[in-house]
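Quick one: structure for this chain?
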Amino acid sequence: MKYSVVIVEDHILLSQALSGLVDGFSKFKILYICKNGKELLTRLKDPKNIPDIVLMDINMPIMNGIETTEALKEEYPDIKVLALSVEEDEKTILKMLRAGAKGYLLKDTEKSILENALIEIQETGFYHTKNVTNLLLGSLHPKIKDDIVLKDRELQFIKHACTEKTYKEIAANMCLSPKTIEGYRDSIFEKLGLKNRTGLVIYAIKNKIFVP
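Got it. Here's what it folds into:
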């Protein structure tokens, strides 16, 4: 018995190429192809059209891959979604996985990896490349270096920075020059791997340096 796969992809040539590729896999067969999420949801109303796996593009007109995956998770939770996209942006990948996708591959993936991903998703329920796994872990547990040591004056600066005070006002409160405060700021940003004051506030709250 072969597992059924539906392709949701708005580029016709690519969808046809993928169809031929998947049909060549020993454990899978293409059930049909859709141009967007809305077309897929319409076809799924017929029980005969419910596949085991959906190969889902992300950027599509009318209804994109993230919206469609969220709808499938709600209405057809047994259908497994494997995202196949050109999007490498971390935010997009996380959005797709949080929407309910069981795996995420780029469109330049090798044939053998695609076949293995389909097998893994069908047999274990998910498939994640090493990069995606690290991305997921990072989203759950933000990287904070264990060897970071903040001095008392740095902690004091961070607490002030979490308020609405300007850097000039912080300098006055700490009896330091504005230039010294700028030095504290730049040093802390570099030490914590931060880019702006907002990131510093989030870090301080997460690590209980500042309690709003």
